[in-house]
Structure formats: structure tokens, C-alpha cells
Write a structure and sequence with these properties.
By secondary structure, the protein is α/β, with parallel strands linked by helices. Helix 7 links the parallel strand 1 and strand 2. The strands form 3 sheets. The chain has a 5-stranded parallel sheet, with helices on both faces. The protein has 3 domains: 116 residues, Fumarate Reductase Iron-sulfur Protein, Chain B, domain 2, CATH 1.10.1060.10; 180 residues, FAD/NAD(P)-binding domain; 112 residues, FAD/NAD(P)-binding domain. It starts with 19 loop residues before the first helix and ends in a 16-residue tail after the last helix. It has 15 helices and 13 strands. The radius of gyration is 22 Å and the shape is globular.
């Protein structure tokens, strides 16, 4: 249960839910394309025209079933996916000069209705227990998807999470104006309702060893995500007023009583989506002067252009070719500014560093014989199956360097669930949920 006294709760939903009338009107704009490009653009292959047509005919149960069959985390994906560059970005309406279909908001409408009715877990067929057991390490999107689809096939699944709250980045890192912690936990409860056991406060390598997991389970899935925020490596970085962006966002979302104080100016260092999210959060929380400092030019930024455009509308400014050289502090050590390599000075009461995260902690992988790292430091795994160098260990999500979005992490988990079923001799029916969507 998330604590009620959290700063993220002061940030409103920038895309509020549809009313039934609004959803019906939007659904009826869809052309229900054959070989729809929106489906091809969805990493999990949701039958988008199919679920939208069901909304138009007031079949919300059928709509939610269609979505969840292909994507068990369709609720969070509806709220946090960059639909502008995925499904909605491929909508044929854009070629006709019309506004694209609001696929994400319609998807949210269908699944939220199932959550409100309390019947989401009953929409998918669940096979009898088959005696097989699988452990999933980490309770982020990849593990939750893998666990849920395996549970539907009769596998007894236990998810091990070191934090107090499950959900991974959906719980700790999603921008609050897209989804609060409570939304992520509704999805966790759906996975629990499918029969998955989720144990929190369990750290692999300390509380439970890899050897124990392998001894007690037929297979193990590693959905461990990334490590701590990367650092700039300049003097004064460990002093007050400087924080890693994901660590700061986690406090914003999860820490009871966390407050900003009297911030007047903040600088976010980086050019990715985490940097843009953090800057937008600061601006929406009322910080008067928020700057993104990026070492190259806007054209080189990895963050989405539409998100940067929204940030600018909210008052965030971008400073290009900004390479931090040192931090300027007052006599009492209080942060005053960031000094750039070219001599420019950016005033700052707070600096958030968003230049990436460390690869998975070696201690998590150490006990799994045969599990290796790829050249970039992620977990080496077959992209089609998630299988690692150990035939009983699979991996997916951010920790593999592939599942950079919630939706791609879900697809990683789904692929691994299929491969694990094949390894364990579980025959899948053509209409099994784990077979839905892209294969």
C-alpha cells in the first residue's frame, strides 16, 4: 500500500480518463483498418482495431480481454507509452490531415472499467496447476508479464522484489502526471489475482541465493532492471543539492512527506526522457526556473521531441552544448550554481543528473552459472526467447539493454514465458493469451 502523503499526489493527471460518452465518440472515429499499421507499431501486437470496435459497441469486457491477452500490463502502457511514436504515430488518420485516434486513452478506458468492476483477472482463461514452479527476480514490468502469463498456463510463480513496493519503474520512476503509484499497484494486484505470489523485501544474493532459487524452481526469470544513476564525476557532486534523477523521482513518488522547500532554480543535466520528465515535474511543482543542460544540441537528444515541446510549454528552457565542469557553493556549502566548461554559469538550488544508469549489479548475477554480460554490460540473453547462457535462466527488460519501454519489457516477459513453457513441456493452445500479439 502506497503512503497517502506523497508529493507526486499534488501533480494532476495531464490526460484524464474518458467518460463513457467521450470514449464511444472517439472509438467511432476509428477506421478499423485491415492490416492496421497501429498494430504493427505496437511491440506487443495488441489488436487495436478489435479492442476499439468493442468499445464502440459497448463491449468493455471484450475490449479489456483483447488488450490483456496481448499485454497484461496494458493499463500502464496505456498511460505511459510514447503512443505518439508507436501506435498512434502510425495511425492512418495522420495521412489524411486528421487527428490520430487516442489509442492510449481508449485502452485505459477499457481496462480501468475492468479494474473498477473487479473482474479483470477473470477475463483470461487460467489452466489448472501443472506442478511446475518458476521464480521471477524483480517485480518490474518484464517480470510481472512473464509471471502473469506463466500463471495463466498453470505454473506456480513467485516474484522476488527487494523494495517494499512491487511494480519496478512503474512504481518508482514513471512521471506522476502520467500515472501515480496507485495506478501501478492496481496492475500488480491483477497479476496477484492470476495466482502469482509476490514477495517484497527479498534481495537476491542476500536474503535468498541464486542456488536456492535454482534448487526450488524449474526455471528463473531475471527482470532486475538497471542500477544507480550514473555520475558526472566532477568535484562537489556528492554534496547537498545534487542528486541522481531517478533517485530523486523515486523519492517524489514514494517517500512520505518529501518536499522541495523553497527552490527558485533547478538544473537537470541530460538529454533523455528521464531528464525531460524530471524537468517537467519540477516545473509543474512550481519551481520558477527550470533548465535542461545538454552537452550536445537539441537534434542529438535521445528524449522524445513531443515531450520536450510539452516541457517548453510548461516553462522549461534548454541550454545546449552545456558540459558541467564544477559546482559553485556558498561558504556554508549550499549549492549556488553549475559552472560549465565554456565558462557559462547556471544558477541552481538543485541539480538532477540524468545521464544514464549503471548496469545490473554483479552480485545479482554472480550465483547463476553461465549467465554472462553483453559487451555493453547488460545481461546477455537471446532476444527471441530471453534465454541466457544458463538453460534454466531467462532475462528481459532494462537489465538486458533491450526493454527500454514498459511495452518492450512486457514483450520480453511474454517471449520468455513462451520459451519457458516450451522448456518445461507445457503445450500451448493457439489461443493461449501468451500467444497473442507479435510472436
Amino acid at each position: 500500500m502506497a503512503h497517502a502523503d506523497r508529493l507526486e499526489r499534488t501533480l494532476p493527471d495531464l490526460k484524464p480518463p474518458y467518460t463513457p460518452g467521450q470514449a464511444a465518440a472517439e472509438a467511432n472515429r476509428c477506421l478499423y483498418c485491415h492490416d492496421a499499421p497501429c498494430v504493427a507499431a505496437c511491440p506487443t501486437g495488441i489488436d487495436i482495431p478489435g479492442f476499439i470496435r468493442k468499445i464502440a459497441t459497448d463491449n468493455l469486457k471484450g475490449s479489456a480481454r483483447t488488450i490483456l491477452s496481448a499485454n497484461l500490463l496494458g493499463y500502464s502502457c496505456a498511460r505511459v507509452c510514447p503512443v505518439e511514436v508507436l501506435c498512434a504515430g502510425a495511425c492512418v488518420h495522420q495521412h489524411q490531415g486528421h487527428e490520430t485516434i487516442a489509442i492510449g486513452r481508449l485502452q485505459r478506458h477499457a481496462i480501468e472499467a475492468a479494474f473498477d468492476r473487479g473482474d479483470a483477472a477473470t477475463l483470461l482463461r487460467r489452466r489448472p496447476a501443472n506442478g511446475k514452479k518458476v521464480a521471477c527476480v524483480g517485480a518490474g514490468p518484464a517480470s510481472l508479464a512473464c509471471a502473469g502469463y506463466l500463471a495463466l498456463e498453470g505454473v506456480a510463480v513467485t516474484v522476488f522484489e527487494k523494495r517494499a513496493l512491487p511494480g519496478g519503474l512503474n512504481t518508482t520512476g514513471v512521471a506522476p502526471y502520467k500515472m501515480h503509484v496507485e495506478g501501478a499497484l492496481r496492475e500488480v494486484e491483477l497479476v496477484r489475482d492470476l495466482g502469482v505470489t509476490i514477495r517484497t523485501g527479498v534481495e537476491i544474493g542476500r536474503t535468498v541465493t541464486p542456488a536456492q532459487l535454482l534448487a526450488e524452481h524449474d526455471a528463473v526469470f531475471l527482470g532486475v532492471g538497471l542500477g544507480a544513476d550514473a555520475k558526472l564525476g566532477i568535484a562537489g557532486e556528492d554534496g547537498p543539492g545534487v542528486s541522481g534523477a531517478t533517485a530523486w523521482i523515486e523519492r517524489l513518488k514514494n517517500e512520505p512527506g518529501f518536499a522541495l522547500g523553497d527552490l527558485l532554480c533547478a538544473v537537470v543535466v541530460g538529454g533523455g526522457n528521464t531528464a525531460i520528465d524530471a524537468a517537467r515535474e519540477l516545473a509543474n511543482l512550481g519551481v520558477p526556473d527550470v533548465t535542461i543542460a545538454y552537452r550536445r544540441t537539441e537534434a542529438d537528444m535521445s528524449g522524445y521531441a513531443h515531450e520536450l515541446a510539452h516541457a517548453r510549454e510548461e516553462g522549461v528552457r534548454l541550454v545546449e552544448r552545456a558540459v558541467p565542469q564544477s559546482f559553485v557553493r556558498g561558504a556554508d556549502g549550499t549549492l549556488a550554481a553549475v559552472l560549465l566548461a565554456d565558462g557559462r554559469r547556471l544558477d541552481a538550488d538543485l541539480v538532477l543528473v540524468a545521464i544514464g544508469q549503471a548496469k545490473p549489479d554483479a552480485s545479482v548475477l554472480a550465483g547463476f552459472d553461465g549467465v554472462a554480460r553483453d559487451p555493453k554490460g547488460g545481461i546477455a540473453a537471446d532476444p527471441e526467447t530471453g534465454r541466457t547462457g544458463n538453460p534454466r535462466v531467462y532475462a528481459g527488460g532494462d537489465g538486458t539493454g533491450v526493454g527500454e519501454l514498459v511495452v518492450t519489457a512486457v514483450q520480453d516477459g511474454k517471449r520468455a514465458a513462451r520459451a519457458i513453457c516450451a522448456q518445461l513441456g507445457i503445450e500451448l493452445a493457439p489461443d493461449a493469451p501468451v500467444m497473442a500479439g507479435h510472436r
